[in-house]
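pasting for ref
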Amino acid sequence: MREGERFWRHVIGCLNLPVLELAYEDVVGDMRGNIASVFSYLGIELPPGELPMPETKKLPSAPKEALKAGFLNAVNDGGTVRRAS
């Protein structure tokens, strides 16, 4: 497991919230099926008809690191991750 993945698993575990895990490669491989899974997970009925499919683009490492740093700044309080209230 890569460091970034370990980090997010730790953060998500600290928040103690239900999680639906999706892998980028799986989502782009079956966008409609994964959208249906997300709707089902949220208890929302999938609208009838065809859904517009968004354009996807995997981020290089630099923007991901900026997102990670921004997230840490938003939830970090004295070195501990706070649970969302």
